[in-house]
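BUG: 3D viewer hangs when loading the predicted structure for this chain

Environment: internal workstation, default settings.
Expected: structure renders.
Actual: progress bar stalls at 90%.

Input used:
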Amino acid sequence: MNYHQEIKQLLEAKKYQELISYLEDNIEDISQNQLSVNLFWDVIPQLLLVEREKALPLLRKGINFVNNIDECVKKLDHVYQLSKSKFPDFSIQLLELCIKIKPNDLYLEKNLTWHYLLLEDYQQALTLAQQIYTKADNLGLKVYLHYLIFEVITAGGMWDILPPYLEEFKINLYKTIESQVAPRFIEDVFVSITPPLIAREDNLSQNRFLQNQIAKLFTKETRAKYSSLILSLSKQTQVKKDNIKSTKKLKIGYISSAFRHNPVGYLSRWLLKYYDRDKFEVFIYLMSDYEDEITQQWFFKNATKYRKFPVANITEIVNQISQDELDILVDLDCLTNHRTSQVMTFKLAPIQASCLGLDSTGIPTIDYFIADSFVLPDNAQTYYQEKIWRLPNCYLAVDGFESGTPRLLSKVDGIVNEDAIIYWTIQTGWKKSEKSLRLQLKILKQVDNSYLFIQCNGNDKSIKKIVEQEGVDVNRIKLLPFVPLLNYRANFFLTNILLDNYPFNGATSTLDALWLNIPLVTRVGEQFHARQGYTFLKNLGITEGIAYTDEEYIQWGVKFGTDEELRKKVYWKLRQSKKTSPLWDAKQFTRDMEKAYQQMWEIYVSKQIKKESVEHE
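Structure tokens produced before the viewer hung:
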């Protein structure tokens, strides 16, 4: 029987269910012929994408006759990567079958751990991560596995077992830096390994040293991996020298995976709305296959040109951006997307800068990190690889936020009484802060008829345990699941006071609350993420709620809860700020950014002129 012809005909006709039935009926015969086996493994990934539930049983039978283990697993992993977010239950079954085909594969086991984390099965994720750690036979792998365990512990709120892992994680990071060998298992994502540490320790000198050194090693490894591409780019750059002019229409490129309903998307969209079309061309580089109406209406519609890179082909991405001949390339992801970080190591524009996302990457090929007078302390330049470019106003601004109708919570629904004081905080993933939660509970104990609403996605039991330890009635704590952004913003209407976390402040969520005139209590630290609330309040002209110690944090929380006049005073200040504050003036923010770009370009041109004059002497 000609299995090949029948299979191809059914596939071309898109008769997928009929094809699955045909393969199941003839599976034994197909397994006896090498060519048929090869065709089966070409077809099964396609079937898994279009007929997930029906194709899985067929795959279970097929794993008994694998022709090329590595190639088969690679194909199935591609299906997993495309399916993991939308179809988590299907994806975990697929991963488990991959592990049956290739037992003890660290890459697959690592993905399975992440998937348990995605499903919020924290205990299973921790058990598997610890099992993998016992097999680690090199320093780089141990660093990554510590990071993985760290993610699981913090997401699951298992704070009591965190300290020893945290200390060993730091020790192994220092050892890796000393060895000057990037972990082979994670060389592509190594640059993004420190954020969970930043969320635990407000130590500017330590955290920036680690990030800068890791970024340096990451850059070296990435450029070595793509050395032939680097060589071809250097030849192209020599041809483009005529493009250096002090006055010209500047080409600005923004690169990110988050031009959509996402904090970075919400904050950066104003740069596309208000940019000066006479002086600038704006290129958008989308490093993702996720798009929505914000992508289309705010970014693609307003850009001079836009490029989409849904697949991780670094060579293709780099060549395209190089051909666009940008003057300035701006990384808006900042540690939140490893492909963006890889691209930034190629120096695809004379000037490279970064902002939004998280703290700066420390990548040596990035020239500037956008900040302001408050979000980094005066001595911060000592600890940054990039030149800190401080804008005259806040390092970001918005014209406001959309919000839905507050349906999730309502005082009149009997959740709390009508006169209750509602404190709100957000405890998510590795940004959770046990210390902040304990301070917030101390505030609650001193304010009668008050409740703490916690928006979280972690282990509810861990939070309840701390509540009990602090002697607070658990009925005064409301654990809220994550809801779509528009809904959670709407629920801020029911909030009296927002309690910020430390040492990893909120950013977009804090802006949401301030936009809705909700007083903020924020603890000021020394690193970028510990000064978000501080710079927002300073740019609003508000000092009430700024705490420099834990004691002040508690004091402000209690004052806001017990003093209605204070709440009203700050409420009216926030209302008035809509007319005067640079934080709510995205057009002026865009002008500030454009002026910065022009000044950066002038500095660059001046240096090039001096360089050429020296060469001609």
